[in-house]
Specification:
The strands form 3 sheets. Strands 5, 6, 7, 8, 9, 10 and 12 form a 7-stranded mixed β-sheet that branches. The chain is globular and about 65 Å long. Strand 14 and strand 15 form a beta hairpin. It contains 20 helices and 18 strands.
Length: about 550
């Protein structure tokens, strides 16, 4: 059990800075498309180490600036997710573009035989276990005391009984989510060595119980923290994430939402943040890597890292920051092959997790004609493909997908539910509707969003279910017909809590009015995605939030 709180104005300022730094933490975009925030790295320059990394490393900025002054090495980051980063390395797409990678863990990377010749060396820099942050009132209701004796089984039992509702990042996008998925599968299977397909099958009944309690999903740790804060009081009482992220959340959460950090007593999966040198790097960059890693492992620097980030030092002589427990939990086994890991991810997406309901509000006004409409059809069409091995991209089994085509008004609405088995015919039907989109008319964004909320109300009432529910808005222009921003705000503020909890994820495309879209995202608790560089990438990145 761990609880750390900031003190005074300085503690609040640090907490806010760390929370902002995690807004895009663990987020990835598709490996096959240009990534948001991952522009091509410049040509190698003396004293610059080009690093492909998880964006949660933004909180290391003060330490790396101090490192630059001490070693002459400047770290230049490009951001992506751990699993996509592993794909980039194994496929050779990182060769010559980056000198090193820096993700929470390299365990998934090491499962791919193609990565062995790509990595020259790796140096763990800090550590943090995946843990459960549980609200104190929930701990008390369950009779779990300070949380030090809680097991994964206890958590699954409470989740299955409707007594524990929690948020967790999508494991196909986030290493924290993936580590949590591996941890529960290993704990429930009783595996004492590398996790196998048989272990996963044995753990499946308990996994279904555990994921019955997942009420929030996210492609990033930062948005998950925001969603937890926005959730109706009492509806979500816990968050799964790295211990360090949970403790950083406590620096800014109000008193009644503070989290007690529980590391299950039967074991965890930890991140050790290995700074990893790529074989394609030149000797000059290898020397820079050596100078930087030597600096980061100095005892005084390890102490600084722990105090700043609330991660644990990897140098044994250095004590963790105040408030962090000094003991370590048993490390649970990891999948033994890439096939087992990807199979576990696919099982989570298509079988274990709560199914989703999404309304795609698609601008098919006249300005979308030509190349823009073709890009939209291609991006959505990719979501109906069957080549996805770990559930990153395509519409999932059991998912309810509604396409709402609009211009001056809503043109048509069509809903599909992907079956639990033999999904291809329904995926083909969705693609047929996508390819039938045509462009003409004006742009009535706010009226169309109101209709989308109406669609969700009717669907929820008819089905009586509790799915992950969201709205995706794609527009290339400014709303110029129908309801106004003020009309929509009044409508949204009058919604009942269940409907108000449905976020809108707008995609900025073409000549879209960024201010309007950002306002919609902020009002509804969503997040704005930039599709100007890659509409494919934006649609696929949103998958982590659905």
């Amino acid at each position: 059990m761990t609880t750390v709180r900031g003190s005074g104005v300085r503690g609040l300022a640090v907490g806010l800075a760390l929370l902002v730094a995690t807004v895009t933490a663990c987020t990835s975009s598709p490996a096959s498309a240009p990534r948001q925030g991952d522009a091509p790295a410049p040509t190698a320059r003396e004293g610059v180490l080009r690093v492909l990394a998880g964006s949660e490393l933004q909180d290391m900025a003060p330490v790396l600036e101090e490192a630059r002054k001490a070693t002459g090495v400047t770290v230049q980051f490009a951001w992506t997710g751990s699993l996509d980063g592993a794909d980039a390395v194994s496929s050779g797409r990182a060769d010559g573009k980056y000198d090193a990678i820096w993700f929470p863990s390299n365990q998934y990377l090491h499962l791919d035989e193609g990565s062995r010749s790509k990595v020259l060396s790796e140096t763990p820099v800090m550590a943090s276990p995946v843990a459960f942050g549980i609200r104190s009132s929930v701990l008390a209701e369950q009779g779990w005391g300070d949380g030090s004796k809680v097991t994964w089984g206890n958590l699954a039992q409470a989740a299955a009984g409707g007594e524990l509702a929690y948020g967790m990042a999508d494991p196909s996008r986030s290493n924290s989510g993936f580590s949590a998925l591996v941890a529960v599968a290993s704990a429930f299977s009783g595996a004492s060595a590398a996790l196998t397909e048989a272990d996963v099958r044995r753990a499946t009944p308990s996994l279904k119980q555990f994921f019955a309690g997942q009420k929030l999903t996210s492609g990033s740790s930062g948005w998950l923290a925001q969603a937890y804060s926005r959730a109706e009081r009492g509806s979500v009482g816990a968050v799964v994430n790295y211990e360090s992220v949970l403790l950083s959340m406590n620096r800014t959460l109000p008193q009644d939402q503070q989290l007690t950090v529980v590391r299950p007593s039967d074991g965890v999966v930890s991140a050790n943040y290995p700074l990893t040198l790529l074989s394609s790097s030149a000797q000059r960059e290898r020397d820079s890597f050596q100078r930087l890693t030597s600096y980061l492992l100095k005892e005084e620097v390890q102490k600084r890292i722990s105090e700043l980030t609330l991660r644990r030092p990897v140098v044994p002589a250095v004590a963790p920051a105040a408030g962090l427990p000094t003991d370590r939990r048993h490390e649970l086994p990891f999948p033994g092959t890439r096939a087992v890991a990807d199979g576990l991810l696919a099982s989570y997406q298509n079988e274990l997790r709560r199914p989703s309901r999404t309304v795609y509000v698609l601008d098919t006004s006249g300005s979308m004609s030509g190349g823009r409409l073709s890009a939209l059809k291609a991006a959505l069409g990719r979501l109906t493909g069957a080549e996805d091995t770990r559930g990153v991209r395509r519409f999932r089994n059991r998912e309810e997908v509604t396409l709402l085509s609009f211009a001056s008004k809503v043109k048509w609405t069509k809903t599909h539910t992907v079956p639990a088995a033999d999904a291809k015919p329904e995926l083909d039907a969705i693609n047929a509707d996508v390819q039938a989109l045509s462009a003409d008319g004006g742009t009535a964004v706010y009226s169309s969003l109101r209709e989308a909320y109406g669609v969700i109300e009717r669907q929820q009432s008819a089905a009586g279910d509790d799915r992950f529910t969201s709205i995706v808005l794609m527009t290339d222009g400014e709303s110029n017909e129908g309801a106004t921003d003020g009309d929509f705000r009044n409508f949204y503020n009058g919604l009942p809590p269940a409907r108000k909890a449905v976020p809108v994820f707008p995609i900025l495309f073409g000549d879209a009015a960024k201010g309007q879209l950002q306002g919609i995202a902020e009002l509804t608790g969503g997040r704005l995605f930039d599709g100007t560089g890659s509409l494919d990438g934006a649609f696929e990145e949103i998958r982590g939030y659905q």
